[in-house]
Amino acid sequence: MLDTVAQSPDIDALMNDIGRKAKAAARPLGFASTEAKNKALNAMADAILASKDHILAENAKDLKDVAGTDMLASFVDRLTLTEKRVAEMAEGIRAIAALKDPVGEVISAWDRPNGLKIERVRTPLGVIGVIFESRPNVTADAGALCLKAGNAVILRCGSDSRRSSQAIHACLVQGLKAAGVPEYAIQLVPVTDRAAVGAMLRGLNGAIDVIVPRGGKSLVARVQNEARVPVFAHLEGLCHIYVDASADLDMAKEIVVNAKMRRTGICGAVETILVDRAVAGTHLRPLLDTLAGAGCEIRGSAAVVEVMPGVKAATEDDWSTEYLDAIVSVAVVDGISGAIEHIQTYSSNHTEAVIAEDPRVVERFFTEVDSAILLHNASTQFADGGEFGMGAEIGIATGKMHARGPVGVEQLTSFKYRVHGTGQTRP
Q1: Nearest to 388, CA basis, from 268, 292, 288
Q2: Which GO CC terms are listed, alphabetically (predicted)?
Q3: Residue 95 is inside which H or E element, if any?
Q4: Whole-angstrom Cα distance, residue 264 to residue 278?
């Protein structure tokens, strides 16, 4: 139990033991059969549904602990589980089970003039450390994705979601045991001491191969600054939508409201809307009225305030703020060139969208904007591994090495080369 071990005097010893167990589990897991992994995943989903009442009861305790604190409403939303969300968690695990097993897949193959046959083949990464806050569903998503990709995983949840995460983790272990898969393949750190995070960032004596942070800006920044192992991370989701002169106004209104207000606390929520100056006279006010009518606070550039005097004037900080709340900054720009310039200046390279009917505008947006996810005529809230058909995701990576965008089962693998010969020697 989390509370039982929370006072452990030697965090390093505890964490190193977890690392050893994970590394030991990773080896047989790396060549476990697809059938065994899928059996474990489906058993996990069954256990989550069977434990729904217990999971919700534990989640209610977590929510009671944060009641009356200064936690943002968006973070409370991330923490909150409902019957629907628990069911979606189980469905997500089943979707991962239904995915093609990436381990052993031949990515490419070619023959050399000397007769050597070379193959590039997917292999597990090994042991993945996942550090997250507020989102108990990450316990299920990360555990299931890592298992499918043949990796062991060490999960460290925040103190705010500890009871919920523990209840979910118990279901994952139940599934592992049911399938005869090593139970230490998915471990949940049993302490809330921040020293456990530091131990993971140091790599647990070489046990951890990759760290994935899921949480607020301060957590991700700490991981990126202190980690001694590779990191899949995004610092924040400063997502933009550009409404071009060629945009269908009714479509634009629906998209911007969904992108901002569907769930304000997720990293795919739009934070800045850019409107082409050419249609500011016809499109801007209807867009602002629609957002305001949905309960969104608007912070606008001078041109926006001129159109709608009641709007709060945006400051320079607004253009680089991830609100994670019902707040959006709006600016008028000089066409696609102005939109690209603004995005290049302020974007975190997470997700951007263009609403336009002009194919030349769309092509330029897709070519010149360098973010992990680009959308045309669709909400930025689709920036999600589940919506990409990955079953779930471990996070959205905005770097340019190895994994970028939603990190699913394929992104949780590396590769090795297999070279077949017939007695060749090198001259």
Answers
A1: 268
A2: cytoplasm
A3: helix 83-98
A4: 29
Instruction: Map out the domains of the chain as residue ranges.
Output: 11-232+404-418, 239-383
Which residues are CB-neighbours of 383 under 8 A, at least 6 positions away?
Answer: 237, 239, 267, 268, 350, 351, 373, 375, 396, 406
Write down the pLDDT at residue 183.
Answer: 93
Q: Which helix (H) or strand (E) holds 329?
A: strand 327-333
Q: What is the mean pLDDT of residues 358-385?
A: 96
Q: Which fold has domain 11-232+404-418?
A: Aldehyde Dehydrogenase; Chain A, domain 1 (3.40.605)
φ, ψ of residue 297 to 5 degrees: the values are: -80, 135
Strands 312-313 and 152-156 come out as unpaired
Flag the least confident range among 17-31, 70-84, 117-131, 278-292.
70-84
pLDDT for residue 6: 45
Return the amino acid letter for 127. V
Is residue 303 within 8 Å of residue 331, measured between CB atoms? yes
Q: How far apart are CA 128 and CA 148, in angstroms?
A: 13
Between the alpha carbon of residue 365 and those of residues 14, 217, 283, 375, the distances in Å are 50, 27, 20, 9
Which CATH number applies to 239-383?
3.40.309.10
Residues 317-356 as b or e (16 or more Cβ within 10 Å = b):
ebbebbbbbbbbbbbbbeebebbbebbeebbbbbbbbbbb
Residue 68 in tokens: 């009356």
Token couple for 143: 């555990």
pLDDT tens readout for residues 212-236: 988 777 788 888 889 999 988 766 7
pLDDT (tens digit, 9 = 90+) per residue, 63-93?
999 888 888 777 888 899 999 999 999 999 9
The pTM score is: 0.83
The CA distance from 352 to 346, in Å, is 12
The Cα 138–Cα 144 span in angstroms is 10
Q: Catalogue the E-assigned strands of 76-183.
A: 106-111, 117-124, 127-132, 152-156
Q: Which residue from 244, 259, 335, 247 is spatially nearest to 291, judged by alpha carbons?
A: 259
Map residue 118 onto helix, strand or coil: strand
Q: Which two structure tokens, joined as six digits, stand for 379?
A: 């909400």
Tokens of 89: 């968690």
